[in-house]
Write a structure and sequence with these properties.
two-stranded parallel ribbon, two-stranded antiparallel sheet, 2 helices, 28% helix
Amino acid sequence: MSDITKCTGVNCLVKERCKRFTAEGNDYWQSWFTIPPFKIVEDKFTCEMYWGANAQAVWNELLNATKNT
């Protein structure tokens, strides 16, 4: 189970590379975006909630740093 807000990925161009779409969910309790959070403005795709490989590395580093305090 992932303790994150998941995304349905509807019409998203990068959903297959985003943890919010690919992470295993929980049938009993799972938070979801009601509307996928990406935007396409002037043919430019952006998503402030994208959770790719680099974002996971940053999150792991933050968790490790807070364990030592």
